[in-house]
Specification:
By secondary structure, the chain is an alpha+beta fold. The protein is about 45% helix and about 15% strand. The chain has a two-stranded antiparallel sheet with strand order 1-2.
């Protein structure tokens, strides 16, 4: 059974998977979340651990685009994209 992860936790790979799955460019996600492109790029690359508020803003923008984040299991963290169909 999948569990939805808490409201702050978001891994860099989940961010990138959700962004690509929602067909968002890094620039568009930065615009939607109010986060700089550089911060987003560094987070996705694992180079930066943003403030909780920044992660919440990124996560909220992705969830508004149909992403559901799944808690890690034996296979690692996950993301599901609801494309509205």
């Amino acid at each position: 059974m999948f569990r939805v992860i808490d409201l702050v936790a978001l891994t860099p790979i989940q961010c990138k998977m959700a962004r690509v799955g929602a067909s968002l460019s890094r620039a568009k996600l930065a615009e939607l979340s109010g986060v700089s492109v550089a911060t987003l790029a560094d987070f996705e690359a694992g180079k930066r651990e943003p403030y909780d508020r920044t992660v919440r803003d990124i996560r909220a923008a992705l969830e508004n685009m149909g992403a559901t984040f799944l808690a890690p299991n034996d296979d690692g963290p996950g993301v599901r994209i609801n494309d509205g169909k």
